[in-house]
Automatic annotation (TrEMBL):
The record marks 88 as: Lowers pKa of active site Tyr. Residues 17-289 form the NADP-dependent oxidoreductase domain. It comes from Bombyx mandarina. GO terms for molecular function: oxidoreductase activity. CDD domains: AKR_AKR2E1-5. The active site is at residue 59. Substrate binds at residue 121. The gene is LOC114250245. The keyword Nucleotidyltransferase does not apply. This is Aldo-keto reductase AKR2E4-like isoform X2. Belongs to the aldo/keto reductase family.
């Protein structure tokens, strides 16, 4: 499958769909790959046409992604420059002097000499013990700018920032963000945010693209499901599945979806969305599911001065702090 691309502020191209590699979180912390499962999924993904892989230092998947890319380059299937790697700075390394070291750690795990896109994972700085740090995210951003000037990253951006925080980076930074990764799906359309980012040339990457179509944290959630009549009728019209329609809706909005799967059939299905287009009316119908619902809501950080979302009455316990 030939995947189109979107132009970033730095003049480079980002493939219009990426494979997410976050394996989740359980009572033991971040879920990690067993028996090189993720490496094998990434190798298969390259074979079926994926060229964009999304990871982060906290996901602990960088090493297996790097192994897969190396093996496919050695096989002659792709060149390094064909592959687009996005990874992210974790909250405990927000000081300007720590950023380059964090990137070098990621490069070592990936086995690469540069990263295509490096994002600040959250605007929230934390100390090593996960207490709140007083580091301003603009200090962190200057560390990312340093790294781009050094050439160890080709592009820099943000993740989980709100509109006001992004505006501040645009105003006070010396390099414009190339991309921002935010939660975008049927129930969190983020129309205003998406349009603002695109007006500034900032490519929007959408995580959790399936929203309520899939189980969340092991249980079903409210919202449209696979058999929703509106989505099903559009899917039937194009001979596609409901998840393919939802991914194509993102493509029509020029949002780069980051679907996750380790299922070979789903892997192929998710990328097979570039042989049809939705009408503007169909896009608007899908926009109508919006309820401003977030599934990624780390309310345990909500008293941090740079917490990007609305506070809730009963914040959940911090999973990063072992009691």
């Amino acid at each position: 499958m030939e995947v189109p691309s979107l132009k970033m502020n730095n003049g480079r191209d980002m493939p219009a769909i990426g494979l997410g590699t976050y394996l989740g979180f359980d009572q033991n912390g971040v879920v990690t790959s067993k028996n090189k499962q993720l490496r094998d999924v990434v190798m298969r993904a390259i074979d079926v046409g994926y060229r964009h892989f999304d990871t982060a230092s906290v996901y602990e998947t960088e090493q297996e992604i790097g192994e897969a890319v190396k093996m496919k380059v050695e096989e002659g299937v792709v060149k390094r420059e064909d592959i687009f790697i996005t990874t992210k700075l974790w909250n405990t390394q927000h000081r300007r002097t720590e950023v380059a070291q964090a990137i070098n750690d990621s490069l070592k795990k990936l086995g690469l000499d540069y990263i295509d896109l490096y994002l600040m994972h959250w605007p929230i700085g934390l100390n090593a013990d996960y207490s709140h740090s007083d580091v301003d995210f603009m200090e962190t951003w200057r560390g990312l700018e340093d790294a781009q000037r050094m050439g160890i990253v080709k592009g820099i951006g943000l993740s989980n920032f709100n509109k006001q925080q992004l505006e501040r980076v645009l105003k006070e930074g010396t390099i414009k963000p190339d991309a921002i990764q935010i939660e975008v799906h049927l129930q969190n359309v983020q129309k205003e945010m998406v349009e603002f980012c695109q007006s500034e040339g900032v490519v929007v990457m959408g995580y959790s693209p399936f929203g309520s179509l899939v189980a969340r944290h092991g249980s079903t959630v409210e919202g449209p499901k696979m058999d929703d009549p509106v989505l099903s009728s559009i899917a039937q019209k194009y001979g596609k599945t409901t998840p393919q329609i939802v991914l194509r809706w993102q493509i029509e909005r020029k949002v780069v979806p980051i679907p996750k799967t380790v299922n070979p059939k789903r892997l192929e299905e998710n990328i097979n969305i570039f042989d049809f287009t939705l009408t503007p009316d169909e896009v608007e119908k899908i926009n109508g599911f919006d309820t401003h619902t977030r599934y990624t809501l780390p309310s345990f950080w909500q008293n941090h001065p740079y917490y990007p979302f609305d506070k809730v009455d009963n914040p959940i316990a911090d999973p990063f702090i072992k009691v």
